[in-house]
Structure formats: structure tokens, C-alpha cells
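Protein modeling request. Please complete all fields; requests missing the sequence field cannot be processed.
Requester role: graduate student
Desired output: 3D structure, C-alpha cell encoding
Chains: 1
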Amino acid sequence: MNYLIVDDLRIHAFHGVIPTENIVGGEYSVSLKIGYDFSKAAQSDDINDAINYAEICDLIKREMMQPSKLIENVAWRIQEAIVAGYPMIETLETTVRKIHPPVPYQMAASAVVLHYEKE
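Delivered output (119 residues):
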């Protein structure tokens, strides 16, 4: 399997169950591991034969700008939008991290990871 990786895309967004999170927002990180056959793109050197990761980043940002209470919902929406827009994807791992979540503990991040595999 060949993979395209989007690693640690940082976005300020407004997700959370605490009301101030929807006002002040917080820092998030999104990473993807996209499995697809990019042998044609590797040979042609043509972006039209590949998944354009700049477009993927735009899609992630668009979904991140829609507030949710749970990062599970954010990750699910991102994954659904990517799979719908890129039918050549065979596998997809979507990770959404909430950087320094507002809990009374020292924690770098909380995260969810979703896995998709084409049937």
C-alpha cells in the first residue's frame, strides 16, 4: 500500500462542551494517513493523477470551522468528507488532537483516531 501523509496540520477552532471553548477556541492538530495507489501519479508527475494534499487541507479546515461538542464528531465529519470526495482512497486513518485540553491535569493533548477501509 502507498500512503499520502498529512502530518500535524494545526488549526485554531471552537469545539468543546465547555461554553468558553466555543468563544475562545483552542488549538487542534489533524493528521491523516491516506492509502491509495499513486503509481500513476508517480510515473506521470501530474497532480491530476494524485490526491492534492492542499485541497485535503482546505477540506479539513472547512470541517474544523464548523463547531462541534466532541472531537469524535469532528474526526468523523473530516473522514466522511474526504472519503466522499476521493473515491480512489482505499484506507484512511484520521487523527484529531485537542492540544492542551481544559482539564485540571497536565496533558499535551487528547485525541481520537478513526480508521476507514474500503469494502
